[in-house]
Amino acid sequence: MTTVRINKAHYPVTTLGPGRRIGIWFQGCSISCSGCISRDTWDAGGGAEMMVPDLIAWCQAATKGEGIDGVTISGGEPFEQPYALKHLLDALNTWRKDAILEFDILCYSGLPMKKLESKHGGILRLIDVICPEPYVGKLHGIARWRGSTNQTLIGLSERGKEIVRKAEDMPAQKHFQLDVANGRVWFIGIPEKNDMERLERLAADRGLVLGDASWRA
To answer: Residue 49 CB: number of other CB atoms within 10 A?
Structure first.
C-alpha cells in the first residue's frame, strides 16, 4: 500500500485557493528556493509517513458536515514523490467522483512547467490547477496565491480554467492564516515581502521570541 511523506495536513485552509480547503504539505524539497518560508519541509527525512488511504480517511473526517471547496497540495516539492503523489491524486479523484463532490485540486510545484509536462504528464491530468516555477525573491509580487511574478496559475481542466478566470478578477492581495497545534504556531499562505520579519519584530517587542522559525530554519 502506498505511503506519502508529509509535513502537515490542515483543514480549513482559506489562503491557498478559493473557499474552504484541505491543505496537504509534502515533505522533502531539493530545489531550496532562496527566501522560502517553508524550509522545515526541505529535509526529505523529516515529517511523517502516512498511508494514502489513511490520509484520505482523515480528509473525509475533517470535512464531514463542513463541506469542502478544494484541496491544495504544496510542500516541499510534491513531484519529488511522484509515485505517492499520483496515488494520492487518484484517491482524491475517486473520492470526489464517488461522493459526487465538486471540489477542485490545486497543486504547487517549484519545477518549470515544461519539465512537469515532459516528465509528469500523467500526473498533471489528475490536477485542476497547477502553480509551477520556483520562487524568486527579487520577483516577489502581490498576485493572489502566488509568491513571485514568474509563477502563474494554469488551469488543466475545465474546472481549473474557471478558477483561474475568477482569480484574474480578484483583487491582487495576499493573506495568511494562523493555526496552533502541538505547541507550535503554523503560518499558512503566502505573505507579503518582509511580513515574517515584521512579525518577529512585533513579537519581540511584546517579549515573545520565535524559536525554530521555518523561514530561517
So the answer is: 10
